[in-house]
Amino acid sequence: MTGLTWLLLAVVVLGLLLSQLAGRLDRLHKRVDATRESLREHLLLRCSEVIELAGLDWLDPASEILLSDAAHKAQDDPTVIDVDAENDLTGTLAAAFPDQASVREIAEQQGGAELLDRLTSVCRRLIHAKTFHDDAVQQCQRMRQRPLVRLFRLAGRARYPQFLALAVDLPEGFEQSR
Prior knowledge:
- By secondary structure, the protein is mainly α.
- It has one domain (37-177).
- Helix content is 74%, strand content 0%.
- Helix 2 runs antiparallel to helix 3.
- It starts with a helix and ends with a helix.
């Protein structure tokens, strides 16, 4: 084999490698988008459960108003994740249910246990959705930092994926009661 044949073979192998890397990067970007959408849907589900809970007059009036306002603010624009509003809602939930006794009061109401079970389930799924999103972002960022990806600009014009600083912890009262 001549030198030209080796060069041509090296170019073909490099092209195949770059094609594979570009395809993997594209799939990772799609995964980040899909997990962000799932996270957004779970945040909206949590808002709807909180609004339902706040409208039942089972909490003290101040907590009802704070929860309702925080949930409505968090779902003002359902196409965008408002990190500050979501963090406020998480904090308001934690303040409304600081201990097991506050959760037990709601659970004793007719239909209260079912509503709290739904809210707890949504909050736990939200925690998982956030974990999946963070994992997808981390993998995509790691791929984009590879030398070949950066040198050949395989990411194109895709935005650099960012972590969301969301506090999605389950209120302490829920953790103790379940």
